[in-house]
Amino acid sequence: MFLGDTIMENNLNEAILDKLTKTCTCKAIPRSKIKEAIKNGASTIKEVQKATGAGSGSCGGRNCSPRINDLLKQSRENI
Prior knowledge:
Blueprint: H1 3-20, E1 22-24, E2 29-30, H2 31-39, H3 45-52, H4 65-77
Antiparallel strand pairs: 1-2
């Protein structure tokens, strides 16, 4: 296996996990949707919540806000 194959496989695995992993469990919103909102310019938890509907479930964002914040931090570190 070549390095390029490994990188592509890792990216594919990450994309699959992002679609399967629910960031907002109340509304079943996947991590991929949160990452897409961030990629499209959402830079705060409130902006991500507005763009995705995360945080509007029964917990009022208490469960997903820390996970959204972590994804926002990761995106800033990768710039």
